[in-house]
Amino acid sequence: MSPRNKELNEEIKDVRREQIRSNALKLFASKGLAATKITDISTASNISQGLLYHYYKSKEEIFVELLRDAYDKMIAAVLALERLPLSPLEKVKLAIEKSLQGFDENKDTAYYYLLINQAAIFEAIPDEAKEIVKKRALLHEVFTRIVTAGQKDGTFKKYDAKDMSVVFWTSLNGLAIYNAIQGAKFKAPDANILMGMFIEEVPSTN
Amino acid sequence: MSPRNKELNEEIKDVRREQIRSNALKLFASKGLAATKITDISTASNISQGLLYHYYKSKEEIFVELLRDAYDKMIAAVLALERLPLSPLEKVKLAIEKSLQGFDENKDTAYYYLLINQAAIFEAIPDEAKEIVKKRALLHEVFTRIVTAGQKDGTFKKYDAKDMSVVFWTSLNGLAIYNAIQGAKFKAPDANILMGMFIEEVPSTN
DNA sequence: GTCTATATCCAGATAGAC
DNA sequence: GTCTATCTGGATATAGAC
Question: Is B166's Cβ below 8 Å from some Cβ in A?
């Protein structure tokens, strides 16, 4: 095979894998791992079901890869947030806004949330997936640190920092799920509603 | 068959059905409809898989029956709440407390939440289940009414009432999911954290 | 009412042709 | 790289004995 063709093949391979991943993400999120058939994925990707095995060796492999992506993106985003030169209050606000916004325009964000939830809730997932799910704790830790900082500087309410971080995360999660259910009808609620859990007075922007 | 025996059989039948339902609820909640095998249910119920078909004609039938229960219970609870002779503030507070408490001691509440979510998120569910899911709107309506009343009497913040009801529901939902994930480790967070979304000042109980 | 055995079907995965 | 054909396994559902 000429170098020219080899390059082309590599490109095709990358494109195909991306096709498959993106279609599988939607399917896994909206049907679940078990209910998603390998033919669902191949059909959505406009390839034969046999060809799919040329790119992935099983349905589970695709799932695990997507789940790893989901966590990597989520963790990277949260760590980046923590490092920003902003006050804890601004960080929380930004996190809420970004999340709500992301759901609105980029459906993949919501799909990733659903995937993470699915992996966390359901027991019938590959062992590798179970390992990845353990990273979940890290997300809570980062958020607890931000909350604690906000309490130290006096802006945040003084409830148990872990509780606050839990309620915060679970609320965003709940919204992501609602978003997925609503589909195009979803309209992001005012971020200040959630902010009320953290601070006493929401500064008026008028 | 003597009337005596007929009675006994009826009783056995009821007990069995209840066994099956309760085991299926746990399994559906923790594995999902598709991943739950009929043998999982029969094994958990200590009966042969053949016998299960004596009580239910399919896996889907059990799922639909449980989902209907879940919605009926949820709607009944919310409508009862609305009718209570309490202020909107007290109603919201009670709803939060009851939910958090229910999760803690009665796992079935959390399982029902998970079932409802699963049915709402996943497309691969029986048509009958899809019909039941439409009742979801009713829950939001009731809650929006309570929020609106709380705004009229001046106790609640003045964000869009629908937004507030959405955030409220989705937050409880998120907590239910977290609860399910945490299992025995779950410790209900302070209800006042969530109350912060509704009111400016949480009255101190000290 | 309950079990074991069996028939049927469908999905996952492989093999081989182009 | 891509497809069609095929093998294999597992899960649903039924049948028939006790």
Answer: yes
* Cα–Cα distance, A42 to A49 (Å, whole number): 5
pLDDT (tens digit per residue) in A158-195: 999 999 999 999 999 999 899 888 888 899 999 999 99
Does the distance separating the beta carbons of A122 and B177 come in below 8 Å?
Answer: no
DSSP B190: P
Q: In sequence order, which residues have a C-beta less than 8 Å from that of residue B26 and are 6 or more positions away? A: B44, B107, B111
Exposure letters A37-75 (e unless 16+ CB within 10 A, then b): ebebbbebbebeeeebeebbeebeebbbbbbebbbeebe
**What are the structural domains of chain B?**
58-195 (1.10.357.10)
Residue reference for tokens 């699915």: A118
Q: Measuring CA to CA, how many Å separate B108 from each of A103, A198, B74, B182, B191?
A: 30, 30, 12, 14, 20
* Separation between Cα atoms, residue A22 and residue A65, nearest integer Å: 11
Runs of H (alpha helix) within B34-106: 38-44, 49-55, 59-83, 88-105
Q: For residue B200, which residues of chain A lie inside 8 Å, CB to CB?
A: 200-201
Closest CA to B190 of A43, A165, A16: A165
Closest to A27 in 3D by CA, of A63, A53, A58, A61: A63
Taking only the tens place, the pLDDT of each residue in A118-153 is 999 999 999 999 999 999 999 999 999 999 999 999
Torsion over CA: B60, B66, B71, B76 (sign): positive
Cα end-to-end span (Å), chain A: 66
Query: Which of B36, B124, B181 has the CB atom closest to A120's CB atom?
Result: B181
**With an 8 Å Cβ cutoff, is B117 touching chain A?**
yes
